[in-house]
Design brief:
Elements lengths: L3 E2 L15 H8 L4 E5 L5 E2 L14 E5 L3 E10 L11 E8 L4 E6 L2 E2 L8 E9 L2 E8 L2 H10 L1
Antiparallel strand pairs: 1-8, 2-3, 2-4, 5-6, 5-9, 6-7, 9-10
Bound molecules: zinc ion.
Zinc ion binds next to loops.
């Protein structure tokens, strides 16, 4: 029987830097933000001091919808640090806005995770941070989403 991945399982705590602090502050408000280059308009994540495409240092934060699809994933069975709950799914999700983000898929059985699966962000509180994980969007929800578009 497979374990169900649930928000709240132990994971190492990220440490915000001067660069990533706005990202974590937005996460605490339930908002997923990434940087947009002021020169070439490229959206990028993870936080960088300069645009990875054109190296411009003018950028701003922009709120994303929080909707994505699973681009690729793997299931980790051996804890990388003692005390970490396994198994868990590490995924590269592609935000609807076209930005890739490394995350965990939670709220479902690891065997349910699949490439192209629609997911949405779910902020999970751990210590004083809210971690942006992703949960499956149920098919009825996906249909409602398309109907609304
Ligand atoms: Zn740029």
């Amino acid at each position: 029987m497979s374990a169900v991945l649930v928000p709240g399982d132990y994971r190492p705590q990220p440490r915000p830097s001067w660069l990533s602090a706005p990202f974590w502050e937005a996460a605490a408000r339930g908002e997923l933000i990434v940087q947009r280059c002021g020169a070439c308009q490229h959206l990028f994540f993870r936080p960088e001091a300069a645009c990875p495409r054109c190296l411009a240092q003018e950028w701003s934060w922009e709120r994303m919808s929080g909707r994505a699809t699973v681009y690729s994933f793997t299931v980790v069975h051996r804890p990388p640090v003692p005390g970490m709950t396994v198994p868990y799914a590490v995924a590269d999700v592609l935000l609807d806005e076209g930005v890739h983000m490394m995350t965990n898929i939670v709220g479902c059985d690891k065997d349910e995770v699949a490439i192209d699966m629609p997911v949405k962000v779910e902020f999970v509180k751990q210590a004083d941070l809210f971690l942006p994980f992703f949960i499956p969007v149920h098919s009825s929800e996906g249909q409602a989403r398309h109907a609304a578009e």
